[in-house]
Write a structure and sequence with these properties.
The complex is a heterodimer of chains A (about 110) and B (about 110). By secondary structure, chain A is an all-beta fold. Chain A has no helices and eleven strands. Chain B has about 110 residues and is mainly beta. Chain B contains no helices and twelve strands. In chain B, the strands form three sheets. In chain B, strands 2, 5, 6, 10, 11 and 12 form a six-stranded mixed sheet that branches. Chain B has a four-stranded antiparallel sheet with strand order 3-9-8-7, with no helix packed on it. A two-stranded antiparallel sheet of chain B has the order 1-4. The radius of gyration of chain B is 13 Å and the shape is globular. The chains are: A mainly beta (about 110), B mainly beta (about 110). The interface of A and B includes residues 34, 36, 101 and 103 of A.
């Protein structure tokens, strides 16, 4: 069966520090991968998606970047965090013939 | 473009009450429609889906019917339980790559 791992579960980082959130998928190959952000009191915003290794599409301009170094690995990064980067980050995967499957999320607090 | 508008919350109900969460969408073509649920501190899980007009998705006592004429996919449950307390997201999939979400509706069921 397929599983998706996302870590860490919670993170508190100071303003200006770097960020690296990792997401890995097991049990499937060549998935589409997604990073969403859920800000407090708001819905889900698609940040990045990837249809293959090294292929990243950015949905909104921001202080974050994404990379896909391996087929089932998706990384969300920042060189310098801002207060406004605080939120709940969700990784997801899907294939053309499936629904989307979400990780447990990372609660990021920038202080 | 593609977008989803869902009823704003929060919604507070008593156990065994009837729940309706309205969802309307804007899309070109014939998107698939979904309801996802997010329990406290967790990622999203698929609740139900419908892939074509007049389809009814159902799961755990929840139902939603894909109404193309009104571009709606309202979620209903006849008798809610405390365990139904969660955030509910309406979503549409316009193509194989993207999944667009509504803002989410927080539902709290009191005993």
């Amino acid at each position: 069966s397929q599983t998706i791992h996302q870590w860490p579960a919670t993170l508190v980082q100071p303003v200006g520090s770097p960020l690296s959130l990792e997401c890995t998928v097991e049990g499937t190959s060549n998935p589409n991968l997604y990073w969403y952000r859920q800000a407090a009191g708001r819905g889900l915003q698609l940040l990045f998606y990837s249809v293959g290794i090294g292929q990243i599409s950015s949905e909104v301009p921001q202080n974050l970047s994404a990379s896909r170094p391996q087929d089932r690995q998706f990384i969300l990064s920042s060189k310098k965090l801002l207060l406004s980067d605080s939120g709940f980050y969700l990784c997801a995967w899907k294939r053309e013939d499936t629904e989307a499957f979400f990780g447990q999320g990372t609660r990021l607090t920038v202080v | 473009g593609n977008s989803v508008t869902q009823m704003e919350g929060p919604v507070t109900l008593s156990e065994e009450a009837f729940l309706t969460i309205n969802c309307t969408y804007t899309a070109t073509g014939y998107p698939s429609l979904f309801w996802y649920v997010q329990y406290p501190g967790e990622g999203l899980q698929l609740l139900l889906k419908a892939t074509k007009a007049d389809d009814k998705g159902s799961n755990k006592g929840f139902e939603a019917t894909y109404r193309k004429e009104t571009t709606s996919f309202h979620l209903e449950k006849g008798s809610v339980q405390v365990s139904d307390s969660a955030v509910y997201f309406c979503a549409l999939r316009p193509n194989d790559y993207k999944l667009s979400f509504g803002a989410g509706t927080t539902v709290t069921v009191r005993a």
